[in-house]
Every structure is written in structure tokens, then in C-alpha cells.
Amino acid sequence: MDNIVYYTTSILLLTVVVLVILERKFPYTKGLPFFRKGFWIDLVWYTIIQSYFLKILIFDYIIQPVDRTWHLSSLQLVANWPLWTQVLFFLVTHDLYIYWFHRWQHHSKILWRTHEAHHSVTEVDWLAGSRSHVVEIIINQTIEFAPIILLGANPLVVPIKALIDAVWGMYIHSNINVKSGKLQYFINGPEMHQWHHADYQEVFYANFSTKFAVWDWLFGTAYLPDKKPEVFGLPYVYPKDYFVQHVFSVKRISEDDLLRYKWFNKYYHLRPNIMKWLGRQQQELLKPNANVEPVTQGK
Q1: Which parts pass through the membrane (predicted)?
Q2: Which terminal Cβ of the chain has fewer Cβ within 10 Å, N or C?
Q3: Residue 14 has pLDDT above 90, yes or no
Q4: What digits encode the pLDDT tens for the residues 141-196?
Q5: Which has the closest alpha carbon to 200: 177, 169, 223?
Q6: Count of CB atoms within 10 A of residue 87's CB?
Q7: What does the DSSP assignment read for the chain?
């Protein structure tokens, strides 16, 4: 099991490198900077910190207690299936669920509050897909991984499916000008998902698929015009801070109003001020020491 985690992590990191290179070479939206708006929030808070703690919560405090209570995994309902069959089965069934739940989120005022964070990114790239509300992740990943464990699947299915999810999620959000042709009718990619993140009314109820675009074409929600969107994100002002974003889903508050409070102002500017201080320290270290006389060769 340790080996598979090592391999999946290596593949994931390699995928990031490849996607970043392709984004620079073949950009969907030209001029998008690597350190785009919200990059550090998405990387540090959503990708690293949130993912770490939610993994513990979902597996240790939701799925395992359910299994200890009902002993469902002991039934080994899919244990005799070949590994590739198990992976494919959970990929397709979960992707179909995600399509309908995602579609429901766009039609429900309550569920939209758990999803709007994902659409708040105004510059969409390989990392943009990591921005998802805590409640959304708990629901989707519990429904994703609970059946794998409770049906007695091969333990390798979890890291393999997690890798596929992560790679596919980065790919469909990547800023790469992909031309899939007829493959886009079956396999989802940036062509349709970039449009899904666009701030256009006509696409708010379209392109809900994650891995398999066939769901959108089959259920009449596909949208793929011959042009590219020019504006991404939400049609209203959305908070930039991780914690305020989550509060915003419950109570509509303004960061500008919060900045009037001294304590919030200090917190809000803490990271930028630390980065500026580190930058000044680095510049000081790189400066030549004016007090040190140059060494000259004696005659």
C-alpha cells in the first residue's frame, strides 16, 4: 500500500508539471499569470490544509464508524471483481452521481451556497478546481469513497480512484487550448469546463459533467459554442479570504466592511505583509556589504 501511495503521488506531481508547461505553451486564455488571483488561497488552504483535515474527517469519523456499526465491508460484495472492473465501476457510477448533484447545486438556492466558492475563481487554471466549500467536499467524497470501502473493494481502488479524480480535475480546469474533436462528446476536458466557469447566464445551467461529457450530451445540458468566454467567475462580489468565503455561504457579508475592524485588518494583511518582509530580507541578503573592503593582492 505504501508503494501505491508513492507512485500515485509521483504521478500527481508529474501531472502538475506537465499541465503547467502546456498552459504556458498552449494557453486557452492568453496572458494568465502562474501566480494568478487566489493562487495561494487555493494551494495552501484548499489543496493542502483543507484536504488533509477533511480526509481524516471523512475516512476516520464518517466511513469507518458506519462500517464498524453495520459491518458492510465484511460482505465483500465486489471483492471478487478484477481490479480494473472495480475502478471502472466506481468511476462511472460516481461520475453519474456528480453530474446530477452538480446540476442540483445550480438549481437549488441552498446547495448553490455550497458550490459558489468553486465558481468564484476569475482566472481558471489547473489549480482552480481545488476551490470547493467544506460541505461540498464532505458530501461528495463521502459518497465517493464510502461505497468503495463498504462494498469490500480492493484497497488499491481508493488511491487509484483518488489519483484519477485529482488528475482529471486539474485537466478539465487547466488553461490549455485543447481541441478534442469528437472525443469531447465522451471525455470531458477544458473546452466545455472552461465555459462552465464563465460568467455567462446561458452557461449557468450547462456543462455539469466532470469526467464523462456524455452525460451533458445525453441529458441535454451540453454547451460548446465556436467562441471562447472572456469573463470568468461570479456576477457578484465574492470574498477573497478562505474563512470569510465559508462565512459568506451562511451570511452575506462584505470584506470591505470587515476591514474597518482593526483585528480583521491585521489578520487580512498578515500574509501579504509577511511575504513583503521576506522579500525585503532576501534583497538585504543579496546586497553587497558596503562595510567590507575588497581584498586586493599584495605586491
Answers
A1: 6-22, 43-63, 83-101
A2: C
A3: yes
A4: 999 999 999 999 999 999 999 999 999 999 999 999 999 999 999 999 999 999 99
A5: 223
A6: 19
A7: -HHHHHHHHHHHHHHHHHHHHHHHHSBSSTT--SS-TTHHIIIIIIIIIIHHHHHHHHIIIIIHHHHHHH--GGG-SSTTS-HHHHHHHHHHHHHHHHHHHHHHHHH-HHHHTTTGGGG--SS--TTGGG---HHHHHHHHHHHHHHHHHTT--TTHHHHHHHHHHHHHHHHHS-B----GGGGGTB--HHHHHHHTBS-GGGTTS---SSBTHHHHHTT-----SS--S-BS-SS----SHHHHHHHTTS---HHHHTTSHHHHHHHTHHHHHHHHHHHHHHHHHS--TTSPPP----
Q: What are phi and psi of 27, to 5 degrees?
A: -70, 140
Q: What is the pLDDT of residue 214?
A: 98
How far apart, in Å, are the Cα atoms of 170 and each of 125, 174, 222, 254, 265?
Answer: 8, 6, 20, 30, 33
Q: Which residues pair with 176 in a beta bridge?
A: 27
Give the whole-angstrom CA distance, residue 104 versus residue 96.
13
Q: Which residue carries 494583511 as its cell?
A: 269
Say yes or no to pLDDT of 112 above 60: yes
Asked if pLDDT for residue 271 goes beyond 90, the answer is: no
- Grid cell, residue 11, equals 504521478
- What is the percent of the chain where pLDDT is above 90? 89
- Confidence category of residue 295, pLDDT binned at 50, 70, 90: low
Q: Is the pLDDT of residue 257 over 80?
A: yes
User: Does the structure show a pLDDT above 50 at 30?
Assistant: yes
